[in-house]
Amino acid sequence: MKRIIICMPNFIGDSINTIPAIELIRQVFPQARITLLGPSFLKELFEYDPRISYIIVSNKRKKNYFRNIFVISRCRYDLGILFTNTFMTALLLRLALVKRLVGYENEGRGFLLNFKRPLNRNVHYINRYAMLVNEWLGNKFTCLPTLKLYYKQECNFHFTNNNPVIGLYLGGTNKRFRRYPEEQAIVLLRMLRNYNLVFIGDSNDAVVQSAYVRQAMIDNVLDLSGKTSVGELVTSIANMDILITIDSAAMHIAAAVKTAFIALLGLSTSPTSTILPRSQTGVFLKIENNLINEADYIKNITPEIIYRNVELLMNRKKDRNDTQQGRSF
Fold first, then answer.
1. What is the domain-level CATH number for residue 217?
2. Same domain for 129 and 170?
3. In a domain, 150, yes or no
4. Alpha-helical segments (H) within 109-181
5. Is residue 77 located within the same domain as residue 185?
6. How confident is the model at residue 294 (pLDDT cuts 50, 70, 90)?
7. So what's the pLDDT on residue 328?
8. What pLDDT is stored for residue 188 in this prediction?
9. Rounded to 5 degrees, what are φ and ψ at 222?
């Protein structure tokens, strides 16, 4: 296989979950040129990934659909792997004359695929993508490769002291039941006043989170919400000591760049068993307490509980650093 094209998912977190599967492909075909086809954020998310040669941005508008057929057909791909589930993506690659297609058998598209397997929505996303590739390879592998997201090696924010940096993504109004409650958020910020705090998020989050900062009346706060590109967001998270986040893309980014994180889980968009990052650096907080309404779950995660876990993760990091320094002597 000299040229491989991969149809990527539409969300950042899901795209990060494909990385172990992409690594399996790279291990078997180390000389192949791998192209990603998907949303525009892929250009920044995978900009520094040496496994990826090229990225084609897809667009659902009809004229761009036919343009992509032309662009893809010119490259004469030997293999197409579809991590997406739609009929149209399979048809796109077939019309673009990709020689062999591997994907999930759903939406009646099985006749377009050379290798197909049923889509099991109860399986974790990371395993789902890796299983598709591994089964096509004849179950060559037993273990998942390490999840690693490459990013620009720089520090893109600075404080005037050496205190640890805590990132916060508590969600804006558009996050609805996933958003951390306002009153509890302000209490949490005051408890974290001895740390350097960095807010992240989109422009909707910026409105809410900037209000939190004003009400908490604390110093050493940098609000980057609504001010970073995807690539800058990845670099920012990589430079944090701990990230406190709701169920979000930021949670998956933290896991992929090995930043310790605390995930505040309320009502999720998918079953948590299928979406939580496979990470040794994360703490997942979900407290149901026999509540009937799932929308109330996140209210049970008190600022005190979050703060205790911040201290726990900071102590773990200190112990690791002390151990590493001891080995260097």
1. 3.40.50.2000
2. no
3. no
4. 125-136
5. no
6. confident
7. 58
8. 97
9. -120, 120
Is residue 114 within 8 A of residue 100, CB to CB? The reply is: yes
Q: How far apart are CA 56 and CA 70, in angstroms?
A: 12
Give the largest Cα separation in the chain, rounded.
63
Region class of 223: left (phi > 0), else alpha (psi between -120 and 50), else beta: beta
User: Do residues 177 and 117 both lie within one domain?
Assistant: no
Phi/psi at 137 (nearest 5 deg)? -85, 5
Q: Are residues 188 and 323 in the same domain?
A: yes
Percent of the chain with pLDDT over 90: 71
Question: Does residue 146 sit within a domain?
Answer: no
Q: pLDDT of 54-65, one tens digit each?
A: 999 987 666 678
Which among 136, 156, 186 is the end of a domain? 136
How large is the average pLDDT for residues 6-11? 97
Residues 115 and 194 in one domain: no
pLDDT tens digits, 172-202: 877 777 889 999 999 999 999 999 999 999 8
Number of domains in the chain: 2
Q: Which of 42, 39, 132 is nearest to 89 (CA)?
A: 39
Can you give the residue range of the structural domain that contains 11?
Answer: 3-136
Phi, psi of 200 (to 5 degrees): -130, 165
* Mean residue pLDDT across the chain: 91
Shared-domain flag, residues 308 and 175: yes
Q: Is the distance from CB of 131 to CB of 103 less than 8 angstroms?
A: no
DSSP state of 46: T
- Classify residue 106: in a domain, yes or no: yes
Q: Which residue in 268, 266, 263, 288 sits closest to 278, CA to CA? A: 263
Res 324: pLDDT = 66
Are the CB atoms for 16 and 93 separated by under 8 Å? no
Which residues does 60 contact at the CB level (< 8 Å), separation at least 6? none
Q: Does 329 have pLDDT greater than 60?
A: no
